[in-house]
6-phospho 3-hexuloisomerase (Candidatus Methanoperedens nitratireducens), 202 residues
Amino acid sequence: MKSEKKECEATIVSMNLIADHIKKVASKLDTCSVTSLVNGIMDSKRIFLMGAGRSGLAARAFAMRLMHLGFIVYFVGETTTPAVQPDDLVIAVSGSGETPSIANLGGISKKIGSKLAVITSNKDSTLGKISDIVVIVPGRPKEDIVYEDYHERRMIGYPQLAPLGTIFEISALVFLDAVVSELMVRTGASEAELKKRHTVFE
């Protein structure tokens, strides 16, 4: 007799899949490229973040934390965002590195002469090839989850556990939040200082 399927099993398996993937990303992270990104942030007059869809949400979250740290930061596409200048740093978040709008904006920022950094899964992408700093955050891993039960594997499958760009988007968000921790150490900023800059209009 078949054992009854555990309640919300896909939820738990998905969370573990994502957590395991983030651990793998952390263990294989190219610290040289991360150091270049951190140095670029520290040395730049202004910082511009950009990304589309859920990658854009990860970029916005990072922009907010940079503001909390006291950096002058903007999100590309907002009506109040000023023009990019040569001494600015532009950071793009794009799993494929091929999102047309973001790749085009990356090309424009390079023509202006600003420094371009990209958080991506694809170093050989359009953005990867033109960026000064490339941080690789792998997306969907090659190896799928292995289920004990053949039918579970057929019914649930990897795409249902982390569809589309979920793995990259969450990994990028966690990575960028970890960079915030690095910047706090570098600048000596305390959580209390970050809290002072947090919006009161909530």
